[in-house]
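Batch 3, record 17
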Amino acid sequence: MLDRYELLRLIEHNARLTQPELAVMLGTTEEEIAAELDLLHKEDIILGYTTVVNWEKTKRESVTAMIEIRLMPQRDQGFDKIAQHLYRFPQVSSCYLMSGGFDLMLIIEDSTLREVASFISNKVAPIEGVVSTATHFILKKYKGNGVIFDDKPIDRREAIIL
Amino acid sequence: MVKKQNDILSEQVKAIPPSAIRRFFDLANEMKGEVISLSIGEPDFVTPWGIREAGIYSLEQGYTHYSPNQGYMELREAISEYMIRRYSLSYKPAGEILITVGGSEAIDLVVRALLNPGDEVVIVEPCFVAYKATVVLARGIPVTIETTADNSFKLRAEDLEAAISDKTKLVMIGYPNNPTGATMSRDELSAVAEVLERHPDVMILSDELYAELTYTEEEHCSIASFPALFDRTIVVNGFSKAYAMTGWRIGYACGPDWIIGAMNKIHQYCIMSSPSTAQYAAIEAARNGDKVIQEMREEYNRRRRVIIEGCRQAGLTCFEPFGAFYAFPCIRGLGIDSDTFCERFLREKKVAIVPGKAFGSCGEGYVRISYAASLENIQEAMVRLSTFVQDLKNEGKDNR
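Prediction for the assembled complex:
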């Protein structure tokens, strides 16, 4: 019996595993894997496949900012309408409704600091219902998507252990 | 010196062979770094951070002193709870649990606490290399039972019955097994237990270092869980394999207080106590480690399937192991012994695995492949295994 949660956990960490590989690893058939993946797509449980990239090692200039937004909730719509308005911008890579001292957390990726700043002042702050924003720029990414950056594992074991 | 050096050394020490595969060992060491190694009997995972952090914290707090001989009470309590939680075995932290320097020390202590010169010890081969050596060092006589792939390397009741004599002091059982990966279910063990019930003076050492790495629906069953045997079984376990804590050197023995007490006597004079830092880390592992163990077990299980499939694709017969992290495929019919197979595989394809002979003479004709390695390395090694086996088969044809 194929455990769909195990399948999901596996491909969440390594989306490149092929269907024949997954079939062997999970002790099932390729057909069953294909059918389950198909189902997971149809049920909108699998939404896409991404790659973990350490952009700091490339020449590409980019900045990432986390923006805390405090909102005035709107009648009948709560925070959803403003969230929807904001997450449609392509620079917004993630958008969360938060508990605690603020309401929305946006993660913005853009090529320059100036662009992020102008996005906030032109697109975020003026929205009706936005009470205040606080922007935090990311200086260094140590770990993301469960992957530690700059951490190549070294096998420190002896040659043979019986 | 009047006497020759060899005459000065203990007969017992001279009686144990350095290793059945010394030459291969040296070669593998030489080639380390340029090969894919599937020859290692230890997890490739680093100890989970939460456990390492507990060890570090203990150092920061200055907990750098001797622990009690039998180990910290907190650790024995955590192990006691663990043994109930996982195996429904009940041991009192005060007198029935002893913390040792790895499972190996616990095995040695059991043997030394029980054996008089000439006592026989039944050993089920292929097995961990230390069993026979500890028995010989304690002036005991190893009586080996050979298990076979036909029977999935399980211990058969009739073989045990035949091996037990009126001189038998101890039976050593190790499932899940290193090197074969064999496991024994409750049903299968019950036949063995029946035999042991008929011999009430025979003690039992159950090496369960790999208990957490059992991949069957049915969870690991300890021979100690048979009520008639509980009072004369010493269960040896440890943190090395399940928690990826090999270098910390923490094992333990659980059993009747009169044996644990005797073992502690030897331990207190020879070892004093297990390393304190490692014990603090082990407390964290025993209390809060169930989840990380499960994640590692699931990962091993997936690799296990990959390696079995790989061996079979390569054309080797391989019984399906359901425990530990080893496959033990058969290489008979390829015209070379396991030593040569491994040496050539290492030289020609740059993959290190271990000749089955190292684990007892009935291991000849088999090789031990560890899947405590990354998926990429396993997959690449299996591709090379396939071409190597093909090479050997072609040679066979040429010679005909």
